[in-house]
């Protein structure tokens, strides 16, 4: 109750400006950080929790249970920037090879290199190994009809951009859309360079435009 009162502005007239009345105290005591678009009690709690987690993840292994060990390994691998820089694009090239290569960065992508190549299998690898849903989203969750059970859900995946609006609206949405396409082109060129392939900018631009067209159709 004290915290709620502290976050209010009782000097404001709630009939004139209810937002100032309900939240004025919070606004007076907190400034939105330049790195954030919002700032609430939940953001403060998240920041405090991240500091605590950082301390936990950086402690030495003291006979931790398996889940803790895995978390510490993942954290250390993300913080090891020198090794990340050293490996460069190798992990991405290995991932592309694992799922059947990338047409824009392969000269013979449409020639099946594996016997019994299965799209279903590749989609499941993307899901299980890389937590990436392509074309189909599939996950396990509580059964809406029986909360004591868990069932498999099949759904549509998220789009490449945050929402459908980005694919059709003008203004800022269009500028983001153009930047998104340019980002895809840039990444494709980098991968081709790392695979010692010819530059061929017009081919890359044409292929990524097709990707954009497909995503737009899916968004529609």
From TrEMBL:
Entry GO terms, CC: plasma membrane
Q: Origin, by domain of life?
A: Eukaryota
GO biological-process terms attached to the record: protein processing
Coiled coil ranges: none
Q: Under the GO molecular function aspect, what terms does this record hold? A: metalloendopeptidase activity
Annotated Peptidase M13 N-terminal domain ranges read 14-220
Tell me the Pfam families matching this sequence.
Peptidase_M13_N (PF05649)
Among PANTHER family, the record links this protein to: MEMBRANE METALLO-ENDOPEPTIDASE-LIKE 1, ZINC METALLOPROTEASE FAMILY M13 NEPRILYSIN-RELATED
Q: This protein is called what?
A: MMEL1 protein
Q: Which organism is it from?
A: Rostratula benghalensis (greater painted-snipe)
């Amino acid at each position: 109750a004290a915290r709620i009162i502290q976050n209010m502005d009782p000097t404001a007239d709630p009939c004139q400006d209810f937002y100032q009345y309900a939240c004025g105290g919070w606004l007076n005591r907190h400034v939105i950080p330049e790195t954030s678009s919002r700032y609430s009690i939940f953001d403060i709690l998240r920041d405090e929790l991240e500091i605590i987690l950082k301390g936990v993840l950086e402690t030495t292994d003291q006979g931790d249970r398996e889940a803790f060990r895995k978390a510490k390994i993942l954290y250390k691998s993300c913080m090891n920037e020198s090794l990340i820089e050293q490996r460069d694009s190798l992990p991405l090239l290995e991932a592309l090879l694992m799922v059947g290569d990338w047409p824009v960065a392969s000269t013979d992508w449409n020639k099946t290199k594996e016997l019994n190549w299965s799209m279903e299998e590749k989609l499941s690898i993307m899901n299980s190994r890389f937590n990436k849903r392509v074309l189909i989203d599939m996950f396990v969750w509580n059964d809406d009809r029986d909360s004591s059970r868990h069932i498999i859900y099949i759904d549509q995946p998220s789009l490449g951009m945050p929402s459908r609006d980005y694919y059709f609206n003008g203004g800022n949405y269009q500028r983001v859309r153009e930047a998104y396409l340019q980002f895809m082109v840039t990444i494709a060129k980098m991968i081709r360079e790392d695979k010692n392939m010819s530059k061929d900018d017009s081919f890359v631009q044409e292929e990524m435009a097709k990707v954009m067209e497909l995503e737009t159709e899916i968004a529609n």
